[in-house]
Amino acid sequence: MESFKILEIRQSVFASNDEEAAKLRAELKEKGVFLLNLMSSPGSGKTTTLTRTIEALKDEMKIGVMEADIDSDVDARTISAAGAKAIQLHTGGMCHLDAGMTRQGLEGLGTGDVELAILENVGNLVCPAEFDTGAVKNAMILSVPEGHDKPLKYPLMFQVCDVVLVNKMDVLPYFNFDLEKCTEYVKMRNPKAQVIPICAATGEGMDAWYGWLRREVRAWRGEETKKENGHE
Amino acid sequence: MESFKILEIRQSVFASNDEEAAKLRAELKEKGVFLLNLMSSPGSGKTTTLTRTIEALKDEMKIGVMEADIDSDVDARTISAAGAKAIQLHTGGMCHLDAGMTRQGLEGLGTGDVELAILENVGNLVCPAEFDTGAVKNAMILSVPEGHDKPLKYPLMFQVCDVVLVNKMDVLPYFNFDLEKCTEYVKMRNPKAQVIPICAATGEGMDAWYGWLRREVRAWRGEETKKENGHE
Fold first, then answer.
1. Which ipTM did the prediction report?
2. Does the beta-carbon distance from A171 to B175 stay under 8 Å?
């Protein structure tokens, strides 16, 4: 049975979002909760990528997902069915989440037993990039049909992201998308950003993404990364 | 030779955007300028659709295009090369344009000889929907890879649009996109909205879009619509 609640998020009252975000991050560190902020355009495949990720990692770590959306609850329903603890956050028309709103979401979700919390931000390449949510890492999904020039047109989004998943690689033959150029443009905005080509629908490239996520969660929680090949 | 200028847009100072928008619309009526506000997600094909539209209609009417973008000038370059008067508007990180900002753009563009002015809004399904730009009609592009559920998730955008172009119809076989459902969801938000399936890259369905635009421009300018078959 799917089970999730819907939370109406209130506008934050804090003067400094950066301070509030740093405070939230420190609390998460203390609790051993890794918070990932996942951003993208509408329709780039955030929910499908999340569903796959939950299925792959749910036996290794307890996952909680906050689905931020303006109005609907279709995503929380899907995520809950995939086996994660889920909560739907209604932003009431607001185009982004800041740290105060994220804190409300985490409280609604309940992080007592959660090791990996994921915030699926509002589908938008502009506003979410401007607000630190308190997340440990920022990830974004750019899908092949959107075009490889997006880092030129939405600079801040690519600048703040630690990892860029290039999704829908299965339709590459039907689009004018140059992965090499895309990677070059991403690195121009943020030389440290990792670019991982994936196809959430077919599973292609997803192991590299799970590997990145696993390493980041373990490092944050102070756990040693197990050698994948068993020689320890 | 391409020729366009770049204008840095300042934040508006007007207390009521709705009033300012109504005032701008009245002025445009007086001048016989039809202003179209074109919105969409990043990468849905706004610029390609516009390029095609300019090529098809530029001998019938004088077209001017305002390319709103956060930082780059790639779109104004493309549009100018297609044969329209173009100006690039830099929004300085802002995620939308309101009526005051649109007025600055129109002044920068110069509307003396323009019959059809098009504002290519910032790629974003949330914020642009909240601000009346003063446009006569709102159009949006939803591309097939984004999914048919977008009217459920971005209600206001579909509510304010007079016409929805469903773009990239050529890749329909590769995506889980149901045009009938999409149309149903659009009508749920706005029963009067027209849905026109197109492929800007191949030209499929574009005649229906040109027909819509031609009729709207002529009606606004008080011109009689010529019968397409020549029996007048």
1. 0.79
2. yes
